[in-house]
Amino acid sequence: MAVLCKAVADGLLLSLSLALLGWGAEGQGNGRGLRQVSGGSTVYLSQDRDIWRPLIHTTVNLSEVSSIKSSFQLRTFDPEGVIFYGDTKDGEDWFVLSLKDGIPLMQMRKEDMLVSVAGGPKLNDGKWHTLEVSNKGQFVILDVDGSSGLVVGMQSKLMEEVISGKLRMALGGILINKDKMIVEFEPRMDGCVREGSWLNLNSPWEMEASELWPCHENIQPGSYFSGSGVAIFDTSVFTFDEDDGVRFELAGNFSHMDGTIFSIKAPGRELTVALVANNNTKEVTLTVGAQRISMSKTLQRLVLTFQPELLQVYQEEPKLTELDVTLLRNPGVWSTWREGRLAIGSLLGEGDDNVGSHFLTGCLKEIQVQGKDLDLDLAITLKSVSSHSCPA
Q: Which of 83, 258, 346, 353 minimizes the number of CB atoms within 10 Å of its CB?
């Protein structure tokens, strides 16, 4: 056991010292024409891109690394996602810091050793937290808001070796195959990083996007749709029983919404169900096939139970009451749930791959299927949506 602990410690310390403590601030670019930003910039991590690709990244010479301390602030309601990544030897040795169940998770590889360490307080409470990583003697310490969140003790001769070559760093993604991770996690992080102080390096960060999306000054839990976003699910992934049906629940301030809240459509068929908020008429309209029901935009919660021959609808205004369901007997609704698609934030179009139009603007504070919160990060298509936060 002592030999194993020492081997783990050797790899952990070297990975942490090289990767975790290696972010740059301002400096010269590498001439590739990519836009450069400061390491101290405020960065929204969930900007649209390939979900595993970094939002910004940089490369520095290891000989330039002289500091043993880095700090930054993180704010999120999201319990899971990648924060940053570092590697040497073109990805042979690597390090990843993420959240899993809201708790910091560090994964790394050094030579043939794979290490995973998790610990510290939950950070997905929507507050700004200051994270500081330092190397003190035989310990690597992750401090959270001035208190020790994760302490790893180690002793290794490897740290006496001359460090040379390149160090790559990335924010919001990784530069290796995701299959190399020891602990699987959903990479997309609806969160913000700011006020980074990354060693004494003078290297800029490069970004693939033309601009960085801003972070809202104040946030609240929910899912925010800016008027161009959509989350699409295959309805077949939801488990259900014909006797009980499928319970779909939405909550929020409907009076502040405009556009398609959700729609359901099966491949090759007409649109089956759609819920649309209209600022002009001050109404929320539920369409089931060719039938329509209008509701006041003062409603705060809507519960729909899909059954083989019936769609039951309840609205909360402010009490939860059942609507007149005599017009909602539509067997096509049930078959759609068995083989269709659910789009939240958009009206599905005629083509099966068309994400639709008439996008939603507003905040859904709660989205549930079968009594469980729906994680939009698991959608087959997620575009321009803040999956876990809304502007307050």
A: 353
Domain 219-391 falls in which CATH fold?
A: Jelly Rolls (2.60.120)
Question: C-alpha angle with apex 81: 78 to 85, nearest 5 degrees?
Answer: 140
pLDDT at 240 exceeding the cut of 90: no
Cα gap 279→358, rounded to integer Å: 13
Answer whether 60's CB lies under 8 Å from 201's CB: yes
Does 260 or 60 have the greater pLDDT score?
A: 260
Half-sphere exposure (Cβ direction) of 276: Cα atoms closer than 13 Å: 18
Nearest to 40 by CA among 53, 54, 58: 58
* Mean pLDDT of the region 142-170: 70
Contact, 57 vs 170, CB < 8 A? Answer: yes
Mean pLDDT over residues 84-101, rounded?
88
Q: Where residue 295 falls among pLDDT bands split at 50, 70, 90?
A: confident
Estimate the share of the chain in helix, then strand, then coil, as percent rounded to the nearest 5.
Answer: 15, 45, 40
Alpha carbons 272 and 91: distance in angstroms, whole number: 48
Q: Where are the domains of the chain?
A: 2-207, 219-391
Task: Look at the domain 2-207 and name its fold.
Answer: Jelly Rolls (2.60.120)
CA-CA-CA-CA torsion sign (172, 198, 98, 62)? positive
99: Cβ contacts below 8 Å, ≥ 6 apart: 76, 78, 79, 80, 81, 83, 105, 123, 124, 189
164 class by beta-carbon count within 10 Å (0-12 exposed, 13-18 middle, 19+ buried): exposed
Q: Which two tokens stand for residue 79?
A: 């319990």
CA atoms within 13 A on the CB side of 118: 14
